[in-house]
């Protein structure tokens, strides 16, 4: 993302200076900006903004609570700011694609009373954190001074964090599918008041259930393939063969369970809605899904306990073999990310809706540091921003899988 990390623009304050937790710098006349609550954007109207040839913004109907981002539509920093602000304030913001900004670099304006800010992604995100207090924190922590001994630990922790967050997303999506299925079971046996008939599950619900479960299954299978291709071979060579043998055996047991549930959902689509057979298959499906949930949680727990703590030793082995240069500290995490092509392209918004906001911001930081293809990174951030703009504060902040269920209902 270095290609979109500019030096401060002439005439504007230096964004490298940390802003006050409650006020930002003033522009021109010396008036300080007012404090804005974390949910200010939810109450702020979108306004029309024009950009002059020099890249300066002129707003019509400006109000202090509106945050604006100006930048090239192909700049990953601009899109990262947009996503971070959506997670931070849980409401749409005003984004103006503007090639007029110098070299396509993004400009952030936190309110009408504030100056326009230009800087690196981390600098701009720190300004956002200072203005909008509270969780999630969108700026990554400052990097620690690197030593040769700490590089292996840092690389291992990047990979371990990526694996743990992938686990959390998969677990929550399975929980969301199970909750939706439980509601369908309940609805299938409930009598409508005063009508004496069964309230049948709608066909659209079954299709949404199949879509949700199918996406979760794709992410879980790709995650397992990533471990088997990228992590297990080196763990085996580092003299930890027993751990991999056990995990791979569990992968083999989960596949028939996942395929069986997928087939049951297909069967539901062929049955008469609300019929006794339909309800019986629905109940059996709920039992099988609960078993998959239990096995998956136990499997992830064992991986995080037995496998992830060994990654630092694996990385040290790689360095001793001379296959890793100190300057490529994020290379291992990049390899992990590149292996999960479907999850980080078509299914990226789905995957991210399984994470709580603070988890999502940690994963987004990993994505931005480890994705070398700028066009692909912009595509990922854009797809996520478009999904978040369809949500609301309570869903994003309190229950991530409710966000996906909400978006499923809105899907055609």
TrEMBL record:
This is Uncharacterized protein.
